[in-house]
Amino acid sequence: MTVEDPEQRSWRASIKTVVDVMLLAGLGDVMVLLEMSTLSSNARIDMLLVGSHPDTGELSAVAVENKQWSELALNPRTRRIAHPGAGPEDSQHPVEQVWDYCRALERQVPMLRGTLWGVANLHNARTEAVAKIMPPIGRLRPDINTDRVRAAGGDVVDRREFARFLSTVLSAEGARDQVHRIDRAHVRPTEEVMHAAYEAVRGRRVFPLLDEQRETVDKVLALVEEGFSANSKQVFIVTGGPGTGKTVLALELLGTLNGLRSSAAHASGSAAFSAALRKHVTGRHGNIPDLFTYFNQHRHREPNHLNVLICDEAHRLRKTSNHRFDKFEQRSDIPQIHELIQAARVPVFLLDPDQVVRNDEIGSPEEIRQAASALGIPHDHVHHIRLQHQFRHSYCPEYVDWLEDLLGYGPNPRPWTYQGDFQLLRADTPQQIEDYLRAQVALRHSARITAGYCWDWTQKYIGGRLVADVRIDDWAWPWNAYKANKRRNIPDRTLWATDPHGFDQIGCVYTAQSFDWDYAGVIMGSDYTWAGDHWKSADNKDRATRGANRHRLIRNIYRVLATRGRHGVVLHSTDRATRDLLAELKVPPIQDALAALHRQHPDLAKPLPPPSVQDVLPW
Fold this sequence. Notes:
The chain is an alpha/beta fold. The protein has 17 helices and 24 strands. The longest helix has 20 residues, at about 5-25. It is globular and about 80 Å long.
């Protein structure tokens, strides 16, 4: 595995400074865990010093966050730190960062509660520089217990104080045994986290469960309440097309099970989806984001640590959980599906096989069944439930069938004959999409434009503005940003779908999948075009779609993008023959719909406040 140069430099520069302090404190035999997972996100703790408390002999640990910053300036309004190399948004306060890491570990591993301390190791900073970012001069969040976290500068007096602190909370006695206890610890949310999850999810606005959704919840609850033994594992596979309420069902399970004090977690393969759930479902319950995890975070759980693991968007499962930044010794050949099945007594997989959009995504009912069989789970312990009811396109449930026929899932494209409230429209130019959707946004509807990955994505800012990479004739818009620019109200990729300011950028399948809006505009590029009597696929800018599966993957991408609109979808193709096909199929032109909007709302020139971000989540 290749480790990035900045990380190598950090290890060489910082780890030695902590080891020197440990030796100064006489703690040379304390155990050190490097790059310790927080178990609740992809964030890692630089160093976790593990030993016993010198007074009680019980487990004691110190999380260390290393920073090479030499100059520090605290923004009193945001509490963020400006330093050499900091980006335009500055950096999180290091003491707040290490406190968050400690709290995350405590919430996932109850045995660590009350045993963790934290230190921000600012080994290149002078004493006076560190003092300016700490109380009483600098302000920290009110939830931070300053008795348990601190910052250490690089001056001699600071290193001695760091050593003194370590000697008061750590001893090397039984350090190896304590590390072994942590390795074998039962990873599960604490009681208050489970209660907070129940309260937060119970209070959200959702559709009521219907038929097969209720059947799934009832079956899972029945098995959990029976208190089955570890060898009676049950696996659920829940399949359904776009808008059939898979995420609603997942959240209902998460809230109900945690309300019953039965440990359950939600997992996804999408950073954007998990970030949105963490931010908008948790609301005021700030201590439950840890329940929204990623598939690869469950690789090290002991078997059956959780009662239920809810794997949402399971079509995004990968062959393994290995990450390109993993150390060689951390890598594993264990299939990711095996890890997820083993992590819980009842793993629940919710998926749409036709939403696989990359060559490395393998989520399908067949793969899950094969994995269950390989793990010795009896065939009658694998339950497959199919969701049929449409929620997203409840105005026009036949739209998905029509779209699938259009894109080549069915025998032939067929004319659009629907007459009703749902608006399917065709645009001759992307400017027409923009004008129509801006009008809908002015009427307080949520909307986004998405596109196939047919243009370079430079990720560049020039003069604080995103470069407009997507250029079609005289029209140009930027892709969604990888990193946020808060001064320009530009959200990062994980919040593009839910932040109202995301409307001013174009999303791709990776930022749009799992979300929906009132109205969706879709730009079809040169990678999927109509060739007289069949669809033709071509390579685009996304290498993950190339190869023998290209046609299926690109078709799936446009199916995902074109099913994001609850009340309306606008289609535009850069290919003339494809635009002609839409006209032949009697898809209405957008000009008439836009003119009708202006007749009904003559004051559209006066924009109204944007819709609530809650309106773009899939329920």
